[in-house]
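Homework help board

Subject: predicted structure for assignment chain

Our instructor gave us this sequence and asked us to write out the predicted structure in token form, then describe one feature. I got the tokens but I'm not sure how to describe them. Can anyone check?
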Amino acid sequence: MSFEGYYQILCVNGHLFEVDYMHLDYYSDEHELCPDCNTRLPKNFFHNLVDDTNYDTCDIIPDFEWEKLCIVEKDEYGLKRYRRPTEQEHAKMRNYIQTWSEEEGFKYTYVGKEEN
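My token output:
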């Protein structure tokens, strides 16, 4: 079985977009451009690898978690901008599995440790 997945990426201007993991691995991060503002990604750009191999989407950061990091509702491109999460925020935010069923549609299950 082969790996399937994608990256959730923030450009330096805070635009969120997704890139297939094969695309990002084939092209170095020096060649990747933000599709919204055409800004080149720096070496230390924020990315989150989402595992989509077995129909369940693991380690995804759901939209409701991104909303907590929103810093601009509408920029000059008409898009939201997000701040880069800290390492601690990232570790907690990515502990979701997304599943889908005809009855419930998409559902997110938190699989990380609950904080007391």
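Reply (TA_rk): Your tokens look well-formed. For the description, you could write something like this. Residues 5-110 form one domain. That's the kind of observation they're looking for.
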